[in-house]
């Protein structure tokens, strides 16, 4: 039997990249699909297709955000993503909500860590 056929190639061939990439979000996508009414164990082909779409969307948005180049150092910043989503109210609101929650978590962690520093 050929065990190497089931694993991505170390040389980084196209099929190896594709197989390795498929595992990035499959667990999360399966859970999301189930949460939205799919079977607890959706077809692998459905998960793979959805993951291809997600990867393509992330790639497209990243390229577009890097083209905007609001940061002079060539780095992408959060405002670039917000700018791209300005005409999609649902996505824009969700990004703002996630950013707000992230800031709130940072403040909570900082408040939680500060008292322990004084006891050391």
From TrEMBL:
Question: Which InterPro entries does this chain map to?
Answer: Histone-fold (IPR009072), TFIID_TAF13 (IPR003195)
Q: Which segment of the chain is annotated as a signal peptide?
A: none
Name the Pfam families on file: TFIID-18kDa
Bias kind Low complexity: ranges: 1-12
UniProt entry keywords in alphabetical sequence? Nucleus, Transcription, Transcription regulation
Gene3D superfamilies, per the entry:
Histone, subunit A
Query: What superkingdom does the record give?
Result: Eukaryota
Q: Which GO terms describe its cellular component?
A: transcription factor TFIID complex
Disordered: where is this region? 1-22
List the GO molecular function terms. protein heterodimerization activity
Q: Which GO terms describe its biological process?
A: transcription by RNA polymerase II
Q: Subcellular location, in the record's words?
A: Nucleus
Could you say which protein family the record assigns here? Belongs to the TAF13 family.
Q: What is this protein called?
A: Transcription initiation factor TFIID subunit 13
Organism of origin: Adineta ricciae (Rotifer)
């Amino acid at each position: 039997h050929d065990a190497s056929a089931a694993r991505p190639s170390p040389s980084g061939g196209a099929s190896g990249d594709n197989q390795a990439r498929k595992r990035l979000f499959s667990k999360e996508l399966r859970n999301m699909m189930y949460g939205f009414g799919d079977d607890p164990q959706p077809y692998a082909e459905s998960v793979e297709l959805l993951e291809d779409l997600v990867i393509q969307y992330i790639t497209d948005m990243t390229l577009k955000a890097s083209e905007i180049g609001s940061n002079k150092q060539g780095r992408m910043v959060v405002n670039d993503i917000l700018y791209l989503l300005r005409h999609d109210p649902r996505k824009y609101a969700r990004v703002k909500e996630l950013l707000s929650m992230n800031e709130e978590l940072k403040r909570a962690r900082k408040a939680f860590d500060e008292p322990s520093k004084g006891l050391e």
